[in-house]
Amino acid sequence: MSAAKPKLNLAVQYAFKPETVPTRHQFRKWALAALGCDAEVALRIVDETEGRELNRDYRGKDYATNVLTFPLEDDPILIGDIVLCAPVVEKEATEQGKSLEAHYAHLFIHGMLHMQGYDHENDADAEEMEALETQIVTKLGYPDPYRIEKEVEIING
């Protein structure tokens, strides 16, 4: 007998919506792939101004970042907010030579894992989180999001 699939209530808010932003259906698919328990998630797609304000106000860092995660509660179900800054996501995908869809998938999965308590504050935790991200992303049919970084490590020894 297999474990029951987690239940997900996903609200997607488009404060900024370029044509290239994935659909709610895609975000839902990615969230379910990363989810280990029932959850209520609000995803907000923002521009650089709002992304910068949120990063400054909540993390003390005065720049727009790709993804912010705000876990609010974890009992009896996981509840939280994830913010994706569309212009930053698009810029990074171009700079890193990744498809935009794959980069959105990776960053949203990254945020979902943060909601579930994963972090990358030290090397061991980062290695665990990155391995899980890679497993989920590749299972969904996207390339390893850390492939380029791993290749550079191998070259540099």
From TrEMBL:
Query: Quick one: where is this thing mainly located?
Result: cytoplasm
**Enzyme Commission code(s) on record:** 3.1.-.-
* A single cellular component GO annotation: cytoplasm
**Which InterPro entries does UniProt cross-reference here?**
MetalPrtase_cat_dom_sf_prd, YbeY
Q: How is the cofactor bound?
A: Binds 1 zinc ion.
Which is an annotated GO molecular function term of this record? Answer: metalloendopeptidase activity
Q: Which UniProt keywords apply?
A: Cytoplasm, Endonuclease, Hydrolase, Metal-binding, Nuclease, Ribosome biogenesis, rRNA processing, Zinc
Q: What cofactors does the UniProt entry give for this protein?
A: Zn(2+)
Q: What GO biological process, any one, is recorded here?
A: rRNA processing
- Can you say where in the cell this protein is located? Cytoplasm
- Highest taxon, organism lineage: Bacteria
Q: Where is Zn(2+) bound in this sequence?
A: 110, 114, 120
Q: Which HAMAP family match?
A: Endoribonucl_YbeY (MF_00009)
Q: What does the record give as the function of this protein?
A: Single strand-specific metallo-endoribonuclease involved in late-stage 70S ribosome quality control and in maturation of the 3' terminus of the 16S rRNA.
Can you tell me which family this protein belongs to?
Belongs to the endoribonuclease YbeY family.
Name of this protein: Endoribonuclease YbeY
Q: Which organism is it from?
A: Novimethylophilus kurashikiensis
